[in-house]
Design brief:
Helices cover about 40% and strands about 15% of the residues. Strands 3-4-2-1-5-7-8-6 form an 8-stranded mixed β-sheet, sandwiched between helices. The protein starts with 5 loop residues before the first helix and ends in an 8-residue tail after the last strand. The chain contains 10 helices and 8 strands. It is an alpha/beta fold.
Length: about 280
Amino acid sequence: MDIVTKDREAEYRAKLTKAHKVVIKIGTSSLMYESGGINLKRIHKLAEIISDMMNEGRDVILVSSGAIGVGVKMLRLSEKPKTVEGRQAVAAVGQVDLMKLYSMAFADYGYSVGQILLTKNILDNGESKKHSVNTFSQLLKMRIVPIVNENDTVAVDEIKFGDNDSLSYMVATINNADLLIILTDIDGFYSNNPNEDPDAVLYHTIEDLSEKIEEAAGGAGSKLGTGGMLTKVHASRLAASMGTDAVIANGDHPEIIYDILDGKDVGTLFVAQGKDEK
């Protein structure tokens, strides 16, 4: 990985303070306890921070995983179903309760939420993509927080994203976002798995957006989630290549969003190409 000078790093981070339209993606592992219980404190803290960002005048779109995890909890299952039909049924239950939790949390700060469920074929189709963008635009204009998830209840291999990291990159791109923040359960993108290698090095700033950076990323995610570091690096790289700065950061404490927007050196920043022309 090429070394980025401190001056350039500071300049890149300073740009993030001016981000107006921000897409935040949070994964199942950040919304659920290891026990399988729902982390209500984190949901409320996330709602508080996003509401504060909205108060500041920023536009915020939340891409949230968790429908299957919440469904597993609400149905008192011991684990995520192994069949497609089982996962779709659990997602149908969990999505309702997930949105209910978000709706109540945001209401405490005076904001309403709007649910947008997407599949890949919707964004691949010009007409439906245009309608999706218009919906996002209208919700933001009305100061309503769009909450996005993959439509797990109907998604099959041909039309699904497969993980919400990829979905978040697409949402950021079609909405011409200034910044994509992907919250996960480690501090960012490391040279190796930090849970297995104590000498693993955290990459702070990445300018090289070629596919070779994905070679260092690992595989599977948590028992309740679907992604891993590879999907996060892939999504961040693509977002940056399309002109949206992207940061992978630890979502254990959602207040890290403030640090990112203050230009602090946290997480891993993928530097957008063509940002000035965007």
